[in-house]
């Protein structure tokens, strides 16, 4: 249990390093935001399609229902935020930030649960899965902070929200799962992973890709491909 929590905290530190790295070069980030958004779309879509969905299906044959639920949940949340919360002229940008924040935060929380589940199966299994998960923490911190800044959040607010969603939520998930990890059945974990996959598909397909197309850059397709390759490498490392 404690090893899983310690590794999840290491993942949070790696995420924090990504946030601080991009925060110290904010002007450069704004000039290249199309690349970050394209990279984020590639990572989120490929991670959901190549990693989360297969994992959820292997644990629960009803996972497609969870995927649809996650997609529709964020769609309805997006409509609610637009109608009830954001009354600014840049409400669309804020909706992007809020929805992305919730999707990434929920995914990171599930990462923490996965740490606890993996280490419950054995230290070697836990370390192998942890290696694959930690690989994506640094770019996840960069992507989360960049999305919030590009969505209109202030620098300080984007900093703390990115740390909370992409970083601190991971050890929270590990701590949450630790007391009853032995009783967490594969079908339930499969549904949670499927819900997370649906939410990430929504963020990537309905927000990030249209945003990248709205402000195309010369090498945006290269950034998209880099995100896909990164997620593919993570999925392969996790499967070793």
Give a structural overview:
This protein is an all-alpha fold and 240 residues long. The protein has one domain. Helix content is 86%, strand content 0%. The chain contains ten helices and no strands. The chain has helices at residues 2-23, 26-31, 33-59, 63-85, 91-121, 123-134, 137-150, 155-177, 186-214, 220-239.
Could you give the count of β-strands? 0
The chain-level structural class is mainly alpha
Helix count?
10
Helix content: over 70%
Supply Rg. Answer: 17 Å
Amino- and carboxy-terminal Cα gap: 22 Å
What is the string of helix and strand elements?
Answer: HHHHHHHHHH
How many domains? The number is 1
Shape: globular
Q: Average pLDDT, to the nearest integer?
A: 78
Largest sheet: none
Proportion of residues in extended strands: under 5%
